[in-house]
Give the backbone structure.
Amino acid sequence: MGVAWSAPSILEKLHSAIACCRTAGRAGPTVLFTGHSYGGGCAILLRLHAVIDSGWIEALRGCRVAAVTFGAPLVFGASSLNFEKDPDESSQAAIVRTVGESTRNYVNQGDIIPRLLGPHASSILSMLSLVSPGFGSPSECGSGRRAAQYLGGVVGSIAGSYAPVGSFLFLYARSDEVFARRVEACGSPSEAAELDRMLLPAKAAFMPYCIRDHSTALYVALLSSVRDKTAPSIDETAAA
Amino acid sequence: MVGGKDGPPNENESAHSCDKQALQQEDEGEHPNRGELVRGAALSSRLISNGWDGRARGSDAADADNGDMGISRNDDVSIDAGRSSRPRWKEWAKHLGSKAAGIGDYVIEPFYRQWVVQQLHEGARPRSRGAAAALAAGRGQLQRQESGRRASEADLTVNVAEVEQDLECAQAAHEIYLEDESECAAALGKGGYTVVHIQPQDGASKLQHPKWAVLCDARRARVIVVYRGTWSWSDTIHDLVFIPAALPCGVKVASSSRLNPPAPRSALGLKFHLG
């Protein structure tokens, strides 16, 4: 896997970056692992690596560490999160909890990627078949056959077997305003239910925009709007 | 024409019955947003059945959509909504009733609502008196509901301090897609960051060896490790979602076209950064 391949090189560069912060008189720098889409998945896995690898643990001692992803696919297997059946439950649960507590996953409206491998994968695939008749069944159309083969060979075999971990921040636009809704995957049962509901796409609104919403430019734009909204006004700053 | 029909539009009766049905559905809905969604579906299907000028609708919707979200259009965000939704729109509308709540009021409802509102703006042109009446009724309903229902601050459940640094992460995740290394380094260093290292990605390795970079801002004691997504998904997703729609199965095409389908970007005018 590419993350394991890149981890030693990143650690080497991270050492110098953290040292640079410390020599500037700043103790405990903030280290953020980030990425979009597949890059976001890599960022979460690197965060996991930083929790279980002794070299990383030592390097990041005293740092605030977080993973921030944008439209990232789910990377934790649902079965691996079933701690009740795991004899080594405590350590595994602690690792996932640590990763989850420091992971923020941004999901832009109907973005397909964070949902594609999740619990509602079958619903998504059936919806895609509405648009593209080639989905899920062989057809005469070359593109449709390729799509079916792809789904059968890759997505179909792993879809639905992944579970959300960390905080999920859903960005959405309402009229002329942009909002963000935060839901914790490992929170209360009601929050878990809400997250499950939000990961289930609605056909009419999801289908036309599921690809467009995956654009990094949209993530930047919507988050900028949220920042502008949350930034304290000049009056508030003066009062503080 | 997109999602419509070529024949003469239906008259007032069907439009009014749709109105009634939509309102009835709203009354019966358990959740107010569910009702709104269902009504939105009824409105849109009514517009379709009344002979909407879909071509105008598609382009206007895309323009207005970006404008409403405060997003300036650029090369990365352009879509012909009409073309992408052409072949199966009626089926989507048909299936709305069962799963209207969908992702919920936070994501889909405002989004879909916005879309429906756009259909009711001047860009869309009704072809009959019935459609014009439907337009007026729908616009009034949506505007009344809009004015009585502004988003509350509770919808903004994010940490203010986090948003600032997360925005920098988003920008880094966006800039790292730049192919040219010097250009990429310049873009990544824009926010006061020093680029410690950029590990280029071998085009042939794709998924196995991702591109990454380490950025450092000593003044604010912040270090960012950013991974890049891979471009290979872009073509795959376009094939999956759009190409079969543009080239429906069951339609006879020349063998050369089958073997060499049009390039997704040039054929459909779509440009995305997909990881």
